[in-house]
Design brief:
It is a single chain. Helix content is 18%, strand content 29%. A hairpin with a 2-residue loop joins strand 18 and strand 19. An 8-stranded mixed β-sheet has the order 10-9-13-2-1-16-19-18, with helices on one face. It has a 4-stranded antiparallel β-sheet with strand order 6-11-12-8, with no helix packed on it. A 4-stranded antiparallel β-sheet has the order 14-15-20-17, with no helix packed on it. The chain is built from 9 helices and 23 strands. It has 457 residues and is α+β, with helices and mostly antiparallel strands. The longest helix has 16 residues.
Length: 457
């Protein structure tokens, strides 16, 4: 049987093979259904080849450093060289008998493995070396994402080359019309897109959006286990050649532990990310290791009357799609761990405040001399992104724009007690810690059963 972990006591397994491929950007397109307590939709992931697979010579040959990532270490020491029985194999037009997962005395009968939910092939009994799965043999490369309590419906490669305007990202590519060269072309486009300079972030978001809507160019084989989603493309043996833009159709499960379906203090339905004990792997397939820093954008649809709040940089306003459906859009340009993605949907009411005037800003500003000193003291050493620490105006902003949301029964209390405290708290944080790293703040009064600081990140 698969080892059972208690998320409240045990460390979570970090399954994602981030040293082979790194997610650089997520595009989510989701629907929230309170009747079924399910969040369903599509996620598109844009990758870069990991640090351990890189070109080592002018001949273009790949070289994999001898070390393995944390996920492979765990499997190599605990799971390899154990016979596996009753493994579901995925098949499209031909059987993939070279695709098996090794486990430590593991009964894999509860695993699902399918190709767009079309076929389930017969079980396989085999003896595998786990590092073959990590492509240290002649097997297909296996992309592993952290995933739990999700129903994955379909996985496909995205044809980013079909998007108008992406041809400018391929000027340095020397390609022919061969199918393999088209695969390289798509990966070249993604590489150029995810490495655009920080001052072109608006253009980058635009093309992420367009590419996320591009047609598919081939379904990918996948299998799910308790803690992972494993994806492969037949005949592709290295991360460099693996599709760098993939689309996943999936839906959450009501029992998934990344979100809590409950009622607010007014008795109305709401859902929010807990942040722990399993982070967001039951909300969307992702990479959990801390090295996996990424940006994201999300469109979330829900019934009219509900408000969607997320850890985005913009103060989203709803767009009415139909009479009873609203859509909310948020984005983030600062690369952060997937665990910092937060969402809360409920019948919240915004607690209105006085207009954010220059008088409030001046009241909580630093003296000019102190501000000038701070400008010289703060030096960034992070990856490139539109950083507020390098923005002179942001450095002088003691109180960033903020909004307060609460259930209707607490509106009066928030107006009377909370609104006047927030500017003081923001100013104190600025005086003590320096420039606010984020451009705005949303404050939500959560239900009393909120059990962690998951939304406070």
């Amino acid at each position: 049987m698969e080892t059972q972990l208690d998320p409240m006591k045990d460390d979570l397994p970090l399954m994602a093979n981030t040293s082979h491929m790194l997610v650089k950007h997520y595009v989510l397109d989701l629907d929230v259904d309170f009747k079924s307590k399910v969040i369903e939709g599509i996620i598109v992931l844009f990758f870069e080849t990991g640090s351990r697979y890189r070109k080592t010579s002018s001949t273009g040959e790949e070289s994999c450093q001898p070390q393995f990532d944390g996920a492979c270490k765990m499997r190599a020491s605990e799971l390899c060289h154990i016979p596996v029985t009753n493994v579901s194999a995925c098949s499209s037009k031909k059987e993939c008998n070279d695709f098996a997962v090794c486990g430590k005395g593991e009964d894999t009968s509860d695993k699902s493995c399918n190709h767009s939910n079309k076929e389930q092939a017969s079980g396989i009994s085999t003896l595998k070396n786990c590092c073959d799965i990590e492509n240290h043999g002649n097997k297909d490369f296996l992309l592993i994402l952290d995933c739990c309590d999700l129903s994955v419906l379909k996985v496909e490669e995205v044809d980013v080359a079909a998007v108008s305007g992406t041809e400018k990202f391929t000027t340095s590519a020397k390609l022919t019309d061969a199918s393999k060269e088209m695969e390289k072309l798509r990966n070249q486009i993604v590489h150029e897109l995810v490495t655009l300079p920080a001052d072109r972030w608006k253009e980058q978001l635009y093309f992420f959006t367009c590419c996320s809507k591009a047609p598919g160019c081939g379904e990918l084989l996948f299998t799910t286990s308790t803690w992972s989603l494993e994806i492969r493309k037949s005949g592709i043996q290295t991360p460099t050649d693996f599709p760098h833009a993939i689309r996943i159709w999936y839906k959450t499960k009501p029992e998934g532990k990344s979100v809590t379906w409950t009622t607010d203090q007014s008795g109305r339905p709401c859902v929010y990310t807990m942040g722990s004990p399993i982070n967001n792997r039951a909300l969307f397939p992702c990479q959990e290791p801390p090295v996996a820093l990424s940006t994201w954008q999300a469109s979330v649809r829900t019934a009219a009357g509900f408000v969607v709040l997320m850890s985005g940089e913009n103060s989203a306003e709803p767009i009415q799609l139909h009479e009873d459906i609203l859509s909310w859009y948020y984005y983030v340009t600062m690369p952060m761990p997937a665990s910092t993605f937060t969402i809360a949907v409920g019948c919240w009411q915004e607690v209105k405040q006085q207009s954010f005037t220059a008088a409030i800003q001046t009241k909580f500003s630093l003296p000019s001399l102190q501000a000038d000193l701070r400008w010289h003291e703060e030096i960034c050493g992070h990856v490139e992104y539109p950083c507020r620490f390098q923005n002179p105006a942001a450095r002088l902003q003691a109180v960033i724009p903020y909004r307060v949301f609460a259930p209707w029964c607490l509106m009066e209390h928030c107006e009377e007690h909370l609104l006047q405290l927030i500017p003081q708290c923001l100013s104190a944080a600025y005086t003590t810690l320096g420039t606010h790293p984020f451009s705005r703040l949303d404050v939500l009064i959560v239900p009393s059963n909120f059990s962690s600081l998951g939304m406070a990140r």
